[in-house]
Design brief:
Chain lengths: 344, 279
């Protein structure tokens, strides 16, 4: 299918049509933040944004999810799972880094051995329309971790902003079905050459580069290096990096019960908190900030790679932007790499 | 597709107080539904998540052997929220179960081999399951000599006392029990498990050493099995970490890139030597 033109001034109306078929989630302004939320009118979508404060990870892995409810705490046979969603869901306007992230979450929640049914039920029907980044943030480093401002991975349709219009590229069959019969005209040669130009300009404007080649092997070598202690000195272990991280997937499972019933929920958790690994015996394999900071880097750049063949980072830069003490993942990785080069 | 988070109902049939401090109990459970029982096929060394609705769930190794049909047992040490709730439960009450989870002991590789079991305290429960599996009349001939070293801090803290007596009468099994401190009634060995293992010095020839117990015991046992000549590939340990999902997803039980719940809990020492010592 040829790329189509979606005029910016028509995009709200385009979304209104999609709203008849889908529950649509798009970037919206909440106070002075841009976040993903469900929209009920195309006008609510705020598409002229850098990136959302939070990734749209909750579309697949909500911060709080009910696993099941029970009406009697004495009888596990009276367990009910939440009803499945009504209309199919459409995620509109996500950035390519966040879209790529779903492929990483698939590895965790839709693995060879175990399938997370809650995740799969959300993931399988989800239609994803992304918007390429004509103006990457200074904190972005997607190109260092296998992505790019116009990466198509995890998308059904990629929109490219060429000024007054978006050029819509079809990525998947599902994307093709969505674009068919919408009355959108094909993009002409002039528009397509504009696409090439904005992509070239955006890629050239990516300022951050992090060396990832060979990092995993090197991380294994410096596991016991005192550098971790130095890197930890300013880290507060506040967990905001993991809270905002699209690839972080750790969770807790707890029961919330009243007299005669309750629910079992799962909620996001973080490796940065001491309780995360504290055993009932009192033993804790990651007792201090140092082990917990190390776990975050090891997990993303070594363990995830060892397990799933890809690193667990999409380079969105949220952890860089929001860290209260400026722990910059790019600098840390660079320090770690350089450390190794001078080590005997 | 089966939802791996849903617990299946089980009835508590019997509760045995194992230790004189009353802190460890063994629960015998029976499935509500026949099909659940048929689907629950496990091997020694695997574990399951037990649910007390309203309190939560926690992982426990199966203390019974699959060769003992109709009997699914878990030995529970009272330590936290879920274990305390379990300890307050009585026969007839209903709990939930998810599993079996984890890899279990590589029983096929044990065939034709001598097995040296070294267990301490509460960590003995899955080794007991394995022992009963190997002692089963259909399986006993598949394995060579079986030696069991098992100890607790005091005689009253030894688990499965009736069974230990039974095992002690068997001719096809070497049983070496010990306690850190004896009491008036104790006629057996006194000393820590690794010291007794060193003294008895079971041969490492054609043998596997299986170690499970508190960290301090493991710390002093590993040099002993090394001295006895067991190569790291033939030393197996069952590891314990804080767990939630049991499926390798929730992210907390990892040792390096291995999830204890999904890739373990049983690892060879050779495997553990390749991983960070963060456990």
């Amino acid at each position: 299918m040829k790329p189509k033109i979606l005029k910016k001034r028509d995009s709200a109306r385009f979304l209104d049509k999609l709203l008849r078929e889908y529950e649509v989630f798009a970037p919206v302004k909440r106070e002075d933040l841009v976040v993903f939320g469900r929209i009920h009118s195309g006008k609510e979508a705020f598409l002229d944004y850098m990136n959302s404060k939070m990734p749209p990870k909750e579309m697949l892995f909500p911060q709080l999810e009910i696993l099941f409810t029970y009406t009697s705490i004495d009888d596990p046979s009276k367990i009910e799972t939440p009803p499945s969603a009504g209309k199919p869901r459409l995620l509109f306007g996500t950035r390519p880094c966040d879209a790529r992230n779903s492929l990483l979450l698939d590895k965790v929640f839709d693995g060879e051995q175990y399938k997370d049914t809650y995740y799969r039920d959300r993931r399988a029907p989800l239609v994803v329309v992304g918007i390429g980044c004509i103006q990457p943030c200074p904190t972005c480093f997607c190109t260092s971790v296998g992505g790019g401002p116009f990466s198509r991975e995890g998308l059904d349709i990629l929109l490219i902003d060429i000024g007054d219009d978006y050029v819509a590229q079809v990525v998947s069959d599902r994307g093709k079905k969505l674009l068919e019969r919408r009355g959108l005209e094909d993009a002409g040669a002039d528009k397509l050459s504009l696409v090439k130009k904005v992509i070239r300009d955006a890629e050239a404007s990516m300022t951050s580069e992090v060396k990832i080649d060979g990092l995993a092997e090197k991380l294994a070598e410096i596991y016991d290096d005192p550098i971790w202690g130095l890197l930890t000195e300013k880290c507060l272990n506040c967990g905001v990096c993991t809270y905002l991280c699209p690839t972080c997937h750790c969770f807790d499972i707890v029961d919330e019960a009243r007299d005669s019933g309750g629910k079992r929920i799962r909620i996001w958790d973080t490796c940065q908190f001491p309780l995360f690994t504290l055993q009932a015996s009192g033993a804790n394999p990651r007792p201090t900030n140092k082990e917990r900071l190390r776990q975050r880097f090891m997990h993303k750049f070594k363990y995830f790679l060892d397990n799933y063949g890809q690193i667990g980072c999409v380079g969105c830069g949220r952890c860089v932007r929001e860290c209260p003490v400026n722990v910059d993942i790019r600098q840390v990785l660079t320090v770690l790499s350089n450390r190794l080069e001078v080590a005997p | 597709m089966r939802n791996p988070y849903l617990p299946l109902p089980m009835r508590i049939e019997r509760v045995v107080v194992e230790t004189d401090d009353r802190n460890i109990k063994t629960f015998s459970l029976s499935f509500f539904h026949e099909e659940d029982e048929a689907n629950f096929t496990y091997i020694p060394g695997q574990f399951a998540e037990l649910s007390v609705l309203g309190e939560g769930e926690a992982p426990f190794g199966m203390a019974s052997s699959p060769t003992q049909p109709g009997r699914l047992e878990f030995t529970v040490s009272k330590a936290g929220v879920v274990t305390t709730a379990l300890h307050n439960m009585e026969p007839g009450e209903i709990i939930g179960i998810r599993g079996p989870l984890g890899n279990g002991y590589p029983i096929e590789t044990f065939k034709g081999k001598n097995i040296v079991i070294i267990g301490g305290g509460f960590g003995f429960s899955t080794l007991r399951a394995l022992t009963n599996y190997m002692l089963d009349s259909h399986h006993r001939n598949s394995f060579g000599d079986i030696s069991i070293f098992y100890g607790a801090r005091s005689p009253g803290l030894l688990l499965y006392k009736d069974e230990l007596q039974e095992w002690g009468r068997r001719k096809d099994l070497g049983l070496y029990l010990t306690v850190d401190r004896g009491d008036n009634g104790w006629k057996g060995r006194v000393g820590v498990v690794p010291a007794i293992a060193k003294e008895v010095a079971p041969s490492a020839e054609n043998a596997y050493a299986l170690v499970c117990g508190p960290p301090i015991m493991i710390k002093f046992t590993l040099p002993v099995v090394h001295e006895l000549g067991f190569p790291p590939e033939r030393v197996l340990l069952s590891m314990e970490m804080k767990m939630k999902c049991g499926l390798g997803m929730c992210g907390r039980c990892n040792i390096g890139h291995k999830y204890v719940c999904r890739d373990g809990p049983v690892f060879t020492l050779a495997q553990l030597n390749q991983l960070p010592q963060e456990y």
